Amino acid sequence: MNVRVLNGPNLGRLGRRKPARYGTVTFAELARSCEALAAELDLSVRVLRTDAEHEMLRWVHEAADEGAAVVLNPAAWTHTSVALREACAMLTAPLVEVHITNVHARESFRTHSYISPVATATIAGCGVSGYLLALRWLAARERS
Ligand code: DQA
């Protein structure tokens, strides 16, 4: 199974960005953990990050064309982007929305997600382990 792990704005700064909230794991470490687990689970994974919305839209379009599953942390675009939601709505394989923090326990503007209504599943508040849980769930779902 092909899986894209896509990350939105500011997630490249993981490890340095508010470590008390987002943790000390860097984006490079997170990417390596996803790649290592994917190899164990026999998933083909690509971990990508961008601060540019048009690039994210292109990756989601490619995933739609290839029938790839997506693990997506849309970051701030969660709360702002109708365009990203409409791209995600074109996916045919499962989409797992991941948030490192529990967005429902934070500022009120974070409680609304444009993405959740078009996601297959949502994981929030498990730290960077949420990405690994998403990969495990995708692999288990494919086997069942
Ligand atoms: C986030 C939560 C968003 O509200 C925020 O804008 C982020 C990260 C998370 O992973 O907890 O950049 O998606």
Automatic annotation (TrEMBL):
Q: Which terms are listed as keywords in the entry?
A: Amino-acid biosynthesis, Aromatic amino acid biosynthesis, Lyase, Membrane, Transmembrane, Transmembrane helix
> Catalysed reaction(s)?
3-dehydroquinate = 3-dehydroshikimate + H2O
Q: Does the keyword Ribosomal protein apply?
A: no
Q: Which residues cross the membrane?
A: 114-139
Q: Which Pfam families match?
A: DHquinase_II
Question: Gene3D superfamilies from the entry?
Answer: Dehydroquinase, class II
Residue numbers for the site described as Transition state stabilizer?
Answer: 17
Could you tell me the Gene Ontology terms of the biological process aspect for this record? amino acid biosynthetic process; aromatic amino acid family biosynthetic process; chorismate biosynthetic process; quinate catabolic process
The residues that hold substrate are 73, 79, 100-101, 110
Q: Say which enzyme class the record assigns.
A: lyase
The answer to whether the entry has keyword Membrane is yes
Family note: Belongs to the type-II 3-dehydroquinase family.
Subunit (UniProt): Homododecamer.
Protein name in the entry? 3-dehydroquinate dehydratase
Q: Which organism is it from?
A: Saccharomonospora amisosensis
The opening ranks of the lineage are:
Bacteria, Bacillati, Actinomycetota, Actinomycetes, Pseudonocardiales
